[in-house]
Amino acid sequence: FAELHAAVAGLPVASSRVVPGLVLRRDFAAYCPAGGELRALLVTEPLRPALAAPGVEFVVDSEGQYRASLCWISRRTEALMSHLQSNNIKLLLSHVKQDEVVIHYAKLYGVSVVECLSSEEMALICEITGVSPCAPFGDNIHREITEAALATFCQPLLLGSQRCVHIGFTGVSAFQPHCLILCGPVAGVNEQHAAALQGAFTMLQQLFKTVDQ
């Protein structure tokens, strides 16, 4: 229930509504409008390439080496984003915050980015789509991408003064997620309404639970 409702204070209760898909309570790190069916990639690690393996010390002896390292990172990141574009990836859903160079090339290659998704949100998206997060690319940045989810739309949504991300997914089961937008004059009223609705849904779950005879 926590991932399937959003509370908005400062609006009348009558503004409450149900919308299809998921509402993520954060703004796009990069937004590139795209029509039609979108391929979305879930990631749990930074896409900026590392200069050395974990636990290995990388030593820079001069400013020239430092600049060369930055150029290498930039070229590798651009190559990865170009690869995503060639695989028709239009949306990147990230559990972690991505580096500025990733956001820069995402905008350049038409890939929208949503960062800092919670573990619960990632798990819900995986359940809806039947897709697991993409394994780290490492040195194989041109490997085939088979873990993409399908989204029917991805657009900004303004809830009060907060910019959110509104996404509709093509599910692999009969479960078609909808999000409840709860509006109220103050946060306390929204919390009361949310608690009451969650209790009602819990009661319905118990009521319609299959009873083993």
From TrEMBL:
Protein origin, superkingdom: Eukaryota
InterPro entries (UniProt xref): BBS10, GroEL-like_apical_dom_sf, TCP-1-like_intermed_sf
GO biological process: chaperone-mediated protein complex assembly
Gene3D superfamilies: GroEL, TCP-1-like chaperonin intermediate domain
Protein's name in the database: BBS10 protein
Organism: Caloenas nicobarica
Gene: Bbs10_0
